[in-house]
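The data layer described in this paper is built around a simple, fixed record for each protein. Because each token names a local backbone shape, the row as a whole describes the fold. We quote a single record here, exactly as it is kept in our systems:

***
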Amino acid sequence: MTTLRADTECVDAVVVGAGHHGLVAAATLADAGWDVLVLEARNNVGGAVASLDVDGWVMDEYSACHPLAAASPVLRGLDLSAYGLRWAQADVQVAHVASGDLTTAPAVYRDPERTAASLAVEHPQDGWTYLRLVEHYQSIKGPFLDALLTRWPPIVPAARLAASVGMGLPDLARFLLLPVTRMGEELFRGDGGRLLLAGNAMHADVPPTASVSGVFGWLMTMLTQDPGFVAPVGGAQSLADALRRRAEAAGARIETSQPVERIVVRGGAACLDRSESGCGPVQVLGVVVGGSGSVDEGGEVVVDEGGDGGSFGAGDFLGGFPRVGVDPDGSLPSP
């Protein structure tokens, strides 16, 4: 039996880090009826989704455009527009620097017909090919994004995806495994379409000759077409702030400037040490969720099970912590 200090606070779940992943986790757990506390070391939420005001200009610290966030079934389910999020997009979504004999930079426009027409200038078949790509993406978009961005392993979405393509599943599997260099050569006769795929693939920091680079180039190009290469109005911080308001509306409590020095596990229960911030410890009844970028460098997780413990990084902690599920009716955690 663990003896708690008098000033120990008990919660169902602590989210360490108020990055976008941490905020989504907090909102999801709070929606299920959990008592959730989010602790963030920085003085604002967002992690890598953050902005600064520099001489009256809004400057995004890291990411600026978020097409995958706008398309995410998870974020769409949170209805962030009701919490102040608005997306901005230009008529020209994205363009690639022209090279070789190209006189105009290849670009993705809001209207796919216009994108196709611009590619057809170099080679008539490329416009037709692009519209077929958009049509095919629209036919598998739902199950594909569900498989990529929701539950893992994505058994149900993968089955829906397989059913949607039927006998074409082997062709789809081959297509998704192509390097972007080969994909571009097989799809387009001119350089414009190939450059759009390759440029979008580089967002994933994957070499263009790697077997998975093609799927990133294809997906980012299709996302640029639908929902668009969008940015939050007011800067990336607006997305984080909307997530914060959504989590708080669900009942989560979010505290900034609250670094977590240690996570101590004794007798199967976790306790978060935040003594350096002048606050008492937090006893976790359910789970500790690791968010993005909030445990300071040098922060450690200490596991003490019967005096035979060790220290390791915070990212290693979750694998050994007892998992807790949520009852189907959305009640509080159950073992």
Notes: The domain at 9-66+236-334 is CATH 3.50.50.60 (FAD/NAD(P)-binding domain). Confidence is low (pLDDT under 50) at residues 291-335. The chain has two domains: 9-66+236-334, 90-229.
